């Protein structure tokens, strides 16, 4: 564990949201949000859906994410609307390799809150958290080949397409699909030369 990471920000403020670390008791909100978005999430986040398939399992998942935060193994944040304090999505920095250091980014929003610029706003807070506070050197993200909105968002946030990964992800149906890999380095994000 890295002592410099003991005092990380646990809440990132944007004009319309609070992107904050999950807390004990957030399992119910996570479960309800995932159930409301089940058909959208089922092909893209099958493992998370399975892990949060009941309210009590969702609470266990939240507590696992909280433990990972404290152990510096992953950083899972819920996206909460300022106006209503409702959970509307999440962002995760996970699969961290501290030797580089590099990590993977994952994100999704509630179906009622897409196409409003909210995720762009949230990533505008999460990327500085990853590159400045965590000092990650490279973030990567994968999208399904047909997930054009996520690819557009990645590019808008500075990520560059690095390649295609064949038979890289298994949907809940069992079908293997190809994914598109994007990457963003710390020097690119900070506007410095490597």
UniProtKB/TrEMBL annotation:
It holds the Pfam family Acetyltransf_3. GO terms for cellular component: cytoplasm. Gene3D superfamilies: 3.40.630.30. The keyword Transmembrane does not apply. SUPFAM superfamilies: Acyl-CoA N-acyltransferases (Nat) (SSF55729). PANTHER family: FAMILY ACETYLTRANSFERASE, PUTATIVE (AFU_ORTHOLOGUE AFUA_7G00850)-RELATED, RIBOSOMAL-PROTEIN-SERINE ACETYLTRANSFERASE. This is GNAT family N-acetyltransferase. It comes from Phaeodactylibacter luteus. The lineage of its organism: Bacteria, Pseudomonadati, Bacteroidota, Saprospiria, Saprospirales.
